[in-house]
Amino acid sequence: MNRKNLIVGQSGGPTAVINSSLYGVVSEAMRQESIGRVYGMLNGIEGFLAGRFLDFKEAFGADELEKLKTTPGAYLGSCRYKLPEDLNDPVYPLLFRKFEELEIGYFFYIGGNDSMDTVSKLSRYAAKTGSNIRVIGEPKTIDNDLVLTDHTPGFGSAARYVASTVREITVDANVYETKSVTIIEIMGRHAGWLTAAGALARKHANDNPLLIYLPETAFDQEAFLAKIEAAFEKNPNVVVCVSEGIHDKDGTFICEYDNSVGTDSFGHKMLAGCGKYLENLVRNRLNVKARSVELNVSQRCSASMMSATDQKEAVLAGAFGVKAALKGETGKMVSYVRTSNLPYRMTLGLEDVNEICNKEKTVPLEWISQDGSDVTEDFFAYALPLIQGAVEIPLGSDGLPDFISRK
Amino acid sequence: MNRKNLIVGQSGGPTAVINSSLYGVVSEAMRQESIGRVYGMLNGIEGFLAGRFLDFKEAFGADELEKLKTTPGAYLGSCRYKLPEDLNDPVYPLLFRKFEELEIGYFFYIGGNDSMDTVSKLSRYAAKTGSNIRVIGEPKTIDNDLVLTDHTPGFGSAARYVASTVREITVDANVYETKSVTIIEIMGRHAGWLTAAGALARKHANDNPLLIYLPETAFDQEAFLAKIEAAFEKNPNVVVCVSEGIHDKDGTFICEYDNSVGTDSFGHKMLAGCGKYLENLVRNRLNVKARSVELNVSQRCSASMMSATDQKEAVLAGAFGVKAALKGETGKMVSYVRTSNLPYRMTLGLEDVNEICNKEKTVPLEWISQDGSDVTEDFFAYALPLIQGAVEIPLGSDGLPDFISRK
Question: Is the CA virtual torsion B351, B357, B359, B362 positive or negative?
Answer without folding.
Answer: positive
